[in-house]
Fold this protein.
Amino acid sequence: MKAIHKFTLEAKTQQRICIPNCIKILSVENQNENIVLYAMVETEKLPNFNIPRNNEKEITNVEILIFGTGHKLNDYLTHAHQFLGTIKLLNDSLVFHVFYRNFLQGGVI
């Protein structure tokens, strides 16, 4: 079964998050002055011969980059990053642009 899960991000230039059973990263939004990322995840694995043992989950490790308007885009931003969205905080006085890339996919914990 698929579901949409929310992950709260920190307001800093670079961070990494782990999303269990990620199907697709959907969007970022401002929720109560927090930056949140929404992702579609698989909540139940379909039966097959590659079922992880002991409730292990496939993990998608995601690198998140956040830049303010007018800030220099540093060397962290590469052609592999995808633009995810623009976030406005504090009554639109702060505007951030969010990029992401999967840096390791399908790892098992």
User: Anything to note?
Assistant: The chain has no helices and seven strands. The two ends are 21 Å apart (CA to CA). The beta strands are 2-9, 14-20, 22-31, 34-42, 58-68, 82-89, 94-108.
